[in-house]
Design brief:
Layout (H helix, E strand, L loop, with lengths): L34 H4 L51 H12 L2 H23 L8 H10 L4 E7 L8 E7 L6 E7 L14 E5 L8 E3 L5 E6 L6 E6 L4 E5 L8 E2 L10 E6 L7 E6 L3 E6 L8 E4 L14 E6 L6 E6 L3 E6 L5 H4 E6 L7 E4 L6 E6 L2 E6 L8 E2 L7 E6 L6 E6 L3 E6 L9 E4 L5 E5 L6 E6 L4 E6 L1 H4 L5 H50 L2 H39 L1
Antiparallel strand pairs: 1-28, 2-3, 3-4, 4-5, 6-7, 7-8, 8-9, 10-11, 11-12, 12-13, 14-15, 15-16, 16-17, 18-19, 19-20, 20-21, 22-23, 23-24, 24-25, 26-27, 27-28
Length: 583
């Protein structure tokens, strides 16, 4: 590219012509230095320093064809039919098509479009635009990355009296907000000056909550509606079910009646997958599971009493402290109880007795966390006492995998929504443990000291990159985990499925062996017990004279048998002596 600049100026403005000539150098003046002036100055050593007083810039010019695009809209019912053509009439449309197909302009446009389409088809056959050329290299780099997590934000309880973060719920649309429920669950520790408020935080702003929810009683649980991100449902310490619509402000939209609510704190409330998106159910330590429709919270739509004897007796009911519902299994749900038992229930059963399907003896204490694996719903995770367990739904005797007993009490756990082999646990010592069972089972892959107080709640958004942890003193900590723990690895699903199936088969074999041993032991003990009973009955029925006569008869029969053996031995000796004498 050639650029030419032209200047126009009269010759008279150029001035006198400069004439240059070569000549030797000549001395014009010679000034000697003054020694007195030199005393006023201090010599300084020379120093070289490079300076750049202007910005580095580059310039590049390329001439390309400019294409200007413009967006336009058009309103039509169907196609681009003329006004005199009714697109609903088949005969008119067919007649119009035949007419257009015979026009010369139509044939020319089709020919021109054919050349363009042929060029595009040739490009698609030459280059596969969907091929991932560096897929193996990228996966290798991800595997080599060490596991890590960093704190990105901390939200502190704004009130003077600090409360425990009992529950956390991420906003369903991208996880930009976080709802936190605060309450004091220690017996008789709550003071009258303690605030019952709950907060919705913006994860980018930790200075103050975005919205303050004002319930009557402190909230133990709080859950966003996955179908409507403006609505939330909460369970109160006094047993109320509270419904909010954030578009209407901080006050509750509706509250359940005291007579029809739970009698104890509501530890878990979950939205159901319904057409209206207004149905939910809740669990409490009063031993009841109640189903609600938030459009009418005056009374529950359905009720289930967790009586293990299946008689529906509320006095013998197990206190529910955790609840699990999977949308892919709309009729089944799991309940974790204070007694360490996990109850599997079927909502669509006809009777109350049939609704309780089976139980799992999982932990020594309350089951604080219960969640199905999002990739393998038949396997679920439980946390109680000092360990976490992974269960298979069809094995009731024991879990198929478990962690070793920890030094601190475990309070909450959840699966990773993006990796089937990763789950998270929090403990009373303020530690967050990240477990990858494909990598190692004896200890966590990563342990992070989140804070100095106990952690009570844990939640992950759908992206799986952030982790929210709630502490005993009302602090919510947001951590970001590395991509190795938050992105699906190569063949991870198949490997995890094989591991779960292998462990399930092992437990089934051990369970069958234990049943066989128990049956053998029971048959042996039953036979020996029956022999003792028969002997005792026979002894009780016979008189002393009969017993003496029987003993004499047994004695003489033994004597006669011994005499017979002696005679046979003597007869054999005599025959042998006779044979020796004849020889």
């Amino acid at each position: 590219m050639e650029i030419i600049y032209e200047y126009s100026k009269p010759r008279s403005d150029f001035g006198r012509q400069c004439l240059f000539s070569d000549r030797p150098a000549e001395l014009i003046a010679d000034v000697s230095p003054d020694s007195e002036l030199a005393l006023q100055f201090m010599p300084k050593s020379s120093r070289v320093h490079a300076l750049q007083c202007s910005w580095d810039m580059s310039e590049h010019q390329v001439n390309t064809e400019r294409f200007e695009s413009e967006s336009r809209g058009i309103n039509h019912g169907e196609g681009g039919w003329p006004k005199d053509i009714n697109p609903q009439e088949m005969e008119q449309t067919i007649r119009f098509r035949k007419k257009v197909e015979k026009e010369e302009s139509y044939l020319n446009s089709i020919v021109q479009l054919g050349d363009v389409i042929g060029r595009c088809v040739g490009q698609n056959t030459a280059v596969d635009i969907y091929q991932k050329y560096f897929e193996e290299q990228d996966q290798g780099d991800e595997i080599q990355e060490p596991p890590s997590a960093k704190t990105i934000n901390v939200f502190r309880e704004p009130n003077q009296f600090k409360r425990t973060v009992s529950f956390l719920s991420w906003h369903p649309d991208g996880g930009r907000k976080l709802a936190a429920a605060y309450s004091c669950l220690e017996f008789q520790k709550a003071s009258t000056d303690m605030s019952p408020d709950a907060y919705i935080w913006d994860i980018e702003n930790s200075s103050k909550p975005e919205l303050t929810l004002k319930p009557i009683s402190p909230l133990v649980c709080l859950e966003y509606n996955p179908k409507d991100s403006h609505t939330l449902i909460g369970g109160s310490y006094n047993g109320h079910i509270v419904f909010w619509d954030t578009r209407k402000g901080s006050q509750p939209t509706d509250i359940s009646s005291l007579e029809q609510s739970h009698r104890d704190p509501v530890y878990k409330a979950i939205w159901l997958q319904s057409k209206t998106g207004t149905e939910a159910f809740s669990a409490s330590t009063d031993g009841q599971i109640l189903w609600w429709d938030v459009r009418r919270l005056s009374e529950p739509t359905e009720k289930l009493i967790l009586d293990p004897s299946r008689e529906g007796n509320i006095d013998r009911a197990l206190g529910a402290i955790s609840l699990e519902f999977e949308a892919t299994m709309p009729t089944k749900f799991l309940v974790g109880t204070e007694q360490g038992i996990v109850v599997s229930c079927n909502r669509k059963a006809k009777t109350q007795a049939e609704k309780i399907v089976c139980t799992y003896n999982s932990h020594h204490g309350p089951v604080y966390a219960l969640q199905r694996n999002p990739f393998f719903p038949k396997n679920f995770l439980t946390v109680g006492d000092w360990r976490a367990c992974i269960w298979a739904e069809d094995i009731k005797e024991s879990s198929i995998m478990w962690t070793k007993y920890q030094m601190s009490f475990l309070t909450d756990a959840c699966w990773s929504p993006v990796r089937p082999s990763v789950f998270f646990t929090v403990k009373m010592d303020g530690m967050l443990d990240i477990w990858d069972v494909l990598f190692k089972q004896n200890e966590p892959t990563l342990s992070v000291k989140v804070c100095d107080e106990a952690l009570y709640s844990l939640r992950l958004p759908e992206s799986g990159r952030l982790v929210a942890c709630g502490s005993q003193q009302g602090t919510v900590t947001i951590l970001e985990i590395c991509s190795g723990l938050s992105s699906l690895q190569k063949n991870e699903k198949s490997l995890m499925a094989e591991m779960l199936e292998r462990d399930a088969k092992r437990e089934k074999i051990l369970e069958a062996r234990q049943k066989e041993l128990r049956l053998k032991e029971r048959s042996r003990s039953g036979q020996s017990r029956q022999d003792e009973v028969d002997r005792d009955v026979a002894e009780q029925e016979e008189t002393p004279e009969q017993l003496i006569a029987k003993a004499e008869q047994d004695f003489f029969s033994i004597v006669e048998a011994e005499k017979k053996k002696r005679r046979e031995r003597e007869e054999e000796k005599r025959k042998k002596a006779d044979e020796d004498g004849c020889s």
